[in-house]
Amino acid sequence: MLSAFFHSLLLAQAATSQVPLEQARLDVCLEQARADPATAITEASTWLGEASGAETSYPQQCLGYAYTLLLRWDAAERAFLAAREAALPSNAFRRAQLATMAANAALAEERADAALISLTIAAEDAQAAADDGLRSIVETDRARALVLKGRETEAEGALEAARSLDPQNALAWLLSATLARRLGKLDEAQGLIETAVALAPDYPEVGLEAGVIAMLQGREAAAEASWRSVVEIEPDSEAAATARGYLAQLAEPAAEEAAP
């Protein structure tokens, strides 16, 4: 789930570009990275050597993205932070994006402290950009880092802020439901996951969590239906593999009862 979300965030671009030609070249570089990250690193490094000033932000972003595809999270984090530092101060939206990308790279290795530092920067940039959607993403990721630190109450507050800033942020609703469930607040978790389902009915992780919550509430048929939907939506996903495991566990007692 988090990997897919991270990549979607990486590919999101600012609504306006201070350097249109550099943005176009970045788009080409990102496409190259998806096909061949090692070659993209070589090409982005060459581009970086040719660029100067704010222009260096773009090859640094491409480097960061390519490193994520190779699971080189520390290198990706450093590249995204360098990209953010080079970006024009007037482009607060882009700077917030890049700091958030750096935080996600740190989170991939569960380095919560590093992620929180980048997210503090991202929050300031997002505030300057006056973009509530981006602020919501930052708060969602901050909650993830806080959970890693065992600071669940603060994480609940961050997720509440994320939902308030952008009520359409399905990931915030999903993570809120997951956290509530882990804290034993099943009724609250049910309400939260229902909203997540309404916002993202085809998101496998939403169906997976809906099934877990239903099972803990004793609603076995609802749990089974949720998990089967996950398998149908994305049969080759990690979520589907987990759902199949849950379904197999449900089938075991039934098989035992049916045995002569």
Topology of this structure?
Layout: H1 2-11, H2 20-35, H3 37-50, H4 57-69, H5 73-86, H6 92-108, H7 112-129, H8 132-148, H9 152-165, H10 170-182, H11 186-199, H12 204-216, H13 220-233, H14 238-258
Helix pairs in contact: 1-6, 2-3, 2-4, 3-4, 4-5, 5-6, 6-7, 6-8, 7-8, 8-9, 9-10, 10-11, 10-12, 11-12, 12-13, 13-14
Task: Write a structural description.
The chain is mainly alpha-helical. The chain has 2 domains: 2-167, Serine Threonine Protein Phosphatase 5, Tetratricopeptide repeat (Alpha Horseshoe), CATH 1.25.40; 184-260, Alpha Horseshoe (Serine Threonine Protein Phosphatase 5, Tetratricopeptide repeat), CATH 1.25.40. 80% of the residues lie in helices and 0% in strands. α13 packs across α14 (238-258). It is globular, with a radius of gyration of 20 Å.
Please, how many helices?
Answer: 14
Task: Sketch the major β-sheet.
Answer: none
Q: Which parts are unreliable, with pLDDT below 50 for 5 consecutive residues or more?
A: 1-7, 9-18
| Distance N to C terminus | 42 Å
Shape: globular
Estimated structural class: mainly alpha
Relative helix content: over 70%
Radius of gyration: 20 Å
- E-strand count: 0
Task: Write a short abstract of this structure.
The chain is built from 14 helices and no strands. It is an all-alpha fold.
